Amino acid sequence: MTPNPLIDLRAVQKYYGDYHALRGIDLTIHQGEFFSLLGPSGCGKTTLLRTIAGFEDVSSGVVMIDGKSMEGVPANHRPTNMVFQSYAIFPHLTVAQNVGFGLRKDPRSKADKDKAVVEALAMVGLAGYGDRAANALSGGQRQRVALARALILEPKVLLLDEPLSALDKKMREQMQHELRRLQRQVGITFILVTHDQEEALIMSDRIAVMFEGEIAQLADPQTLYRRPVSRRVAEFIGVMNFLPCEVTQGAGDAIEVNLPGLGHATLQPDQCPSGGVPGTGSVGVRPEAMSILFEGEAASGQIAQAEVVEVIYYGDMTYYEVRFDAVEAPVTISMKNIVGRPVLERGDKARVSWDARSLVLFC
User: Residue 293: exposed, middle, or buried by beta-carbon count in 10 A (0-12, 13-18, 19+)?
Assistant: First the structure.
């Protein structure tokens, strides 16, 4: 089934004086999609979100929501609602009064409004909290109140401006799963702004990675992680090792490369975003895509010899930094700590298994 486009941005430009904040953004976001705008501070992701919301006017270009141009349409008349980073909870009101604040001019009866508040609180896991003072809530509870207050107005699009950044690590991880569950439950489009790569990968159907006012790559999480289209995207998403290589053949459906210290590899076109031009370059490989072979373990790919130069133990995982012959920089390898598998020490020799299918070529 072809996804139904809900938001269309066409050649959107935004200037603040001489500063070019958004540089010709073309983007379609679908009905019922959990979409994330991901990038470092200052990349334009929050400006783009505020442009969709109507808090910022575009310098040029078109913003369409549900087939209608938003030119001249103020924020309070758009089918969107926003959850801000600060939550903007009124401390002098109860939880129920905060959630129902946007219904003040709604023509429904008081009984119907009260019912809507109760249902919204139940939706975010705060059933029975209506009479509680807002200033007595934890950070996670305040975030849920902000969500309920936004969803009670039944917007077509919920805009989330780094809503989890003020939470501690454990609560943040819990709320990531809760937000994803909530989005699937209500079925509306969520657009999240975040600088946290892991958060975007966990929650999103698709992710737009932004740098300097432009979209560098737009893809689903697996494609973004496994097949970044540039070294800059690869460096920003998770951890990736970069190894020097020489491209010996760049034509046709197979690209041949030599990797000092590892050997020869044949890559497919989808592993070579820059096309695989003969000459020097580098390949990227994720830490979990290489494996240290322990006694009795067979290789699933090619084997190279290395020396362990650093060991970082995390309990469930151990991260090794190993050095290959003819490779100056150490390479990070992550290994699951399963029962019976020893943890190596610095100076140990290691057999490393790797598979050419896990490599991405950057020329």
Answer: middle
In angstroms, what CA-CA distances link 245 with 146, 208, 256?
51, 29, 10
Give yes or no for a contact between 96 and 87, defined as CB atoms under 8 angstroms apart: no
CATH 3.40.50.300 fits 1-79+192-238, yes or no: yes
Model confidence, pTM:
0.91
Query: How do 241-249 and 19-30 pair as beta strands?
Result: unpaired
Longest CA–CA span in the chain (Å) reads 76
Q: Three-state DSSP class for 347?
A: coil
For the chain, what is the mean pLDDT? Answer: 92
Q: Over the range 46-75, which residues count as b (16 or more CB within 10 Å of their CB) and which as e? A: bbbbbbbbbebebeebebbbbeeebeeeee
Q: Which residues pair with 352 in a beta bridge?
A: 292, 304
**Which residue's entry shows tokens 């190894």?**
243
CATH of range 239-362; options 2.40.50.140, 1.20.120.1730, 3.20.20.140, 3.40.50.720: 2.40.50.140
Residues 168-194: tens digit of each pLDDT: 888 888 889 989 999 999 999 999 999
